[in-house]
Amino acid sequence: MRKTLFALAALALAGAAQAQSATYAIDPTHTFVTFEAKHFNFGFSTNRGRFDKKEGTITIDPTAKTGKVEVTIDMGSINTGTAAFDKHLKGPDFFNAEVHPSAKFVGEQFAFDGEKIVSVGGTLTMLGKTLPVTLKADSYGCFMHPMIKRQVCAGDFSTTIKRSQWGMDKMTAFLPDDIRLVIQVEGVKQP
């Protein structure tokens, strides 16, 4: 009897732990991947752009303090608001979108403060090269969405990378190597 009660308690605890883990599908209409780079090395103004097509999932277990995020970005969807600039950035001098049509971030090193995510470490694969990147959570939280009646987790994450590390080293003599990435993400809890 005692063994049976112990086994039932263990199963209940295992079920409770599994119930804490949830998977969220990234909402592409509320998720934006943007970049910022100083205009030339003088630093007086900032060029900005975004990638309009992205997809992915996030799995979070705040009890176990674990998670996994996978975000794929369509490099051909770059949008700076200027067609000629977009064409140049898609070309071989920068993103080489014809040869490398996507970039992917995979993160499994979640840092929490209570139930809030403070950073996600992982790898960014771009231009065929995979390197470590840590995204800092500038804000993060979950809420019950009043319109779709499902839990949504959202946040703003940022990091600064050196483009030359991925082989994007054209024009570094007069164009900055440091690129700031800002990811505004919103994920909808899946059943």
Task: Spell out the blueprint of helices and strands.
Blueprint: H1 2-20, E1 22-26, E2 32-38, E3 46-51, E4 54-61, E5 66-74, E6 78-79, H2 83-90, E7 102-113, E8 116-126, E9 129-144, E10 151-162, E11 178-189
Summarize the structure in words.
The chain is mainly beta. The protein has a single domain (21-189), classed as Lipid/polyisoprenoid-binding, YceI-like (Lipocalin), CATH 2.40.128.110. It is 14% helix and 52% strand. It contains 2 helices and 11 strands; from the N terminus they run αββββββαβββββ. The protein has helices at residues 2-20, 83-90, and strands spanning 22-26, 32-38, 46-51, 54-61, 66-74, 78-79, 102-113, 116-126, 129-144, 151-162, 178-189. Strands 1-4-5-7-8-9-10-11 form an 8-stranded antiparallel β-barrel. β4 (54-61) and β5 (66-74) form a beta hairpin. The two termini are 36 Å apart.
